Amino acid sequence: EKAPYRAQHAAMVSPGGKIPLGLPRKPLRIVVTGGAGFVGSHLVDRLIERGDSVIVVDNFFTGRKENVQHHFGNPRFELIRHDVVEPLLLEVDQIYHLACPASPVHYKFNPIKTIKTNVVGTLNMLGLAKRIGARFLLTSTSEVYGDPLEHPQKETYWGNVNPIGVRSCYDEGKRTAETLAMDYHRGAEVQVRIARIFNTYGPRMCIDDGRVVSNFVAQALRKEPMTVYGDGKQTRSFQYVSDLVEGLMRLMEGEHVGPFNLGNPGEFTMLELAEVVKEVIDPSATIEYKENTSDDPHKRKPDISKAKELLGWEPKISLKKGLPLMVEDFRKRIFGDHKDKGL
Ligand code: NAD
Ligand code: UDP
Ligand code: UDP
Hints:
The chain has helices at about 5-10, 40-50, 105-110, 110-130, 170-190, 210-220, 240-255, 270-280, 305-310, 320-335, and strands at about 30-35, 55-60, 75-80, 95, 135-140, 190-195, 200, 225-230, 235, 240, 260, 265-270, 285-290. By secondary structure, it is α/β, with parallel strands linked by helices. Strands 3-2-1-4-5-6-11 form a seven-stranded parallel β-sheet, sandwiched between helices. Strands 7-10 form a two-stranded parallel sheet. A two-stranded parallel sheet has the order 8-13. The chain is globular. Belongs to the NAD(P)-dependent epimerase/dehydratase family. UDP-glucuronic acid decarboxylase subfamily.
């Protein structure tokens, strides 16, 4: 281990344990790239609450200042507008590297930028980690499994990915990011952690990001039909954001490199998801079928045995419990704060 990290870190981990105890210790300095985005902003909330200092680095492509503005004025919080494709000089103890658009609509908007962000952006953040001896966590994705031929997916599965398809800027980009992380780990002794995140939802998701949960929720609230792509029998497993953030923090503080699947094993077809949204928002909501996008994975469900065993982590919030929490936030953002606007 590199000295600067070890010195700070020794004081914060329970003996033999992996979970931060919240005992008095020197606060860590932590960079969260993509910290103005959906997942990043929830992570920032937890890190600030824990007493650490956080620097958010974000180019605001899909992130928003509103997601972190409640920390403005806090001396332990700093927000830097910066694109990770450009080099960055900072002195910190940990780097959570999230910067990258996550929704297919966003990452396909400018595929060249997406792959640059994944490759050059990750390279820069690993170069930074190497120079300062910081611990580095990569938020990879279940997309590295592509259209999986193994179900559920374990971390040992190598995936089934189209290298020249419209999704490859993202899934091949993240695969390369994992390769870079492992090469910096093996070749430059950088302490790395790799999370493979499965579909995650919750408050602060972009309302019009085209992802299925945000689409269905926004459509049902606006009394529009929910758009089901293809026959709606494809599956996904949906994780509530606070479960993910807990998993990311345990991974960062623990001793294992990974990769670790972080996802909720509860698997739903898109038609079943539409039913849950109906129950939660509006029993009279309708469905409209649309043509599916190309290379859409048929099914996805994490095997989380590894995270359970080595991180002591598993998700706590089911779709039925988590969805209402997101709906509340979407209602406010779509209609303003007045809950009684005919809803
Ligand atoms: P998001 O789009 O809300 O957040 C991404 C953030 O990164 C945004 O704030 C955006 O402005 C910023 N960003 C993008 N490109 C950048 C660049 N070049 N330089 C600096 N900042 C940049 O997405 P999210 O759902 O919060 O995802 C966060 C991370 O988790 C991403 O790396 C994503 O690939 C990964 N992930 C998310 C999910 C999910 O379901 N949400 C699933 C798998 C993996
Ligand atoms: N880098 C950075 N901040 C740093 C150190 C490096 O952004 O504090 C970038 C650097 O510009 C380079 C990348 O990280 O493009 C990889 O750095 P590394 O030192 O591993 O490679 P080298 O610079 O030797 O090619
Ligand atoms: N999908 C859908 N209706 C929508 C948006 C997406 O039926 O309005 C489907 C999409 O075809 C895919 C699944 O929902 O099979 C998940 O899509 P999303 O973009 O949320 O995530 P990802 O494909 O990255 O898992």
